[in-house]
């Protein structure tokens, strides 16, 4: 294969993965109560620069969740923005508390997720994801902050073109603040997206302190519990 063409294919595939991993913030850091249900909407994406305007891409996702018990919540979501453009992107996952915070020791949770992506004319794809978050309660346990890392995995050894898959793991560190009340939550998250993925072959200019790697994303997530 022509080296230039091969390099272009690698860059295009890398940017596709970046756009996928950039679509949403962490669904849950702390699980719901047992038998509690929730619906939510999130808005945000990687920050880009166009002309004289710098804004995050407006990815919108809708989510439903159910509290299986007080330490385990199941959830599913669909990317509304992708659906409007004829692409199907959905996820199913759980959030499990490993241990709860105690004084200065943070709580820890883990969220394994299965991401399903289908583009018309392309094959169905599955991307496993594992989020790990540490969190600290404050303000009488009504609010909390968290830090963590989102891990996406590429299962295929080769791309559809036959080129060897070079990016099998995408790491995205994140930091967030959750304002939690009895019936609702509002979360704000900043994420360094795909820090090990190049972005310098994109027609989009990403505004990020990471230079030619990854992107910087900002998200707002609202959850209504019932």
Would you kindly provide a brief summary of this structure?
By secondary structure, the chain is mainly β. The chain contains two helices and twelve strands.
Describe the structure.
The protein has a single domain (3-225), classed as Outer membrane phospholipase (ompla), Chain C (Beta Barrel), CATH 2.40.230. The model is unreliable at 1-15 (pLDDT under 50). The chain is built from two helices and twelve strands. Strands 1-3-4-5-6-7-8-9-10-12 form a ten-stranded antiparallel beta barrel. Helices cover 11% and strands 57% of the residues. It is mainly beta.
For the structure shown, list the relevant keywords.
2 helices; 11% helix; disordered N terminus; globular; Outer membrane phospholipase (ompla), Chain C; mainly beta
Tell me the distance between the termini. Answer: 56 Å
Strand order of the largest sheet: 1-3-4-5-6-7-8-9-10-12
Output the helix-strand order. Answer: HEEEEHEEEEEEEE
Q: What oligomeric state best describes the polypeptide chains here?
A: single chain
Percent strand equals over 45%
Which regions contain 5 or more consecutive residues with pLDDT less than 50? 1-15
CATH topology tier name = Outer membrane phospholipase (ompla), Chain C
- The count of DSSP E runs of length 2 or more, i.e. the number of strands, is 12
Q: CATH class, anyone?
A: Mainly Beta
Going by CATH, the architecture would be Beta Barrel
As a percent range, the share of helical residues equals 10-25%
- Rg estimate, integer Å: 18 Å
- Count of domains: 1
- Give the biggest sheet: 10 strands, antiparallel, barrel
Shape: globular
Structural class: mainly beta
Mean pLDDT: 84
Please report the number of helical segments.
2
């Amino acid at each position: 294969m022509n080296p230039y063409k091969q390099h272009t294919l690698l860059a295009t595939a890398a940017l596709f993965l970046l756009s996928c991993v950039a679509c949403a913030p962490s669904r849950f850091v702390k699980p719901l109560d047992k038998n509690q249900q929730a619906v939510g909407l999130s808005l945000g994406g990687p920050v880009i620069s166009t002309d004289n305007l710098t804004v995050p891409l407006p990815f919108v996702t809708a989510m439903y969740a159910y509290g299986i018990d007080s330490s385990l919540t199941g959830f599913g979501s669909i990317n509304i923005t992708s659906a409007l453009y004829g692409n199907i992107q959905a996820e199913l996952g759980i959030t499990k508390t490993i241990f709860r915070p105690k004084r200065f020791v943070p709580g820890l949770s883990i969220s394994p997720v299965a991401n399903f992506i289908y583009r018309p004319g392309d094959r169905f794809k599955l991307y496993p994801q594992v989020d790990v978050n540490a969190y600290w309660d404050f303000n009488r346990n009504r609010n909390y902050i968290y830090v963590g890392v989102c891990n996406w995995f590429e299962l295929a050894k080769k791309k559809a073109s036959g080129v060897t898959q070079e990016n099998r793991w995408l790491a995205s560190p994140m930091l967030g603040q959750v304002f939690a009340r009895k019936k609702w939550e509002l979360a704000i998250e900043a994420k360094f997206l795909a820090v090990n993925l190049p972005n310098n072959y994109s027609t989009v200019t990403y505004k990020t302190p990471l230079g030619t790697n990854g992107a910087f994303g900002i998200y707002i997530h609202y959850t209504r519990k019932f």
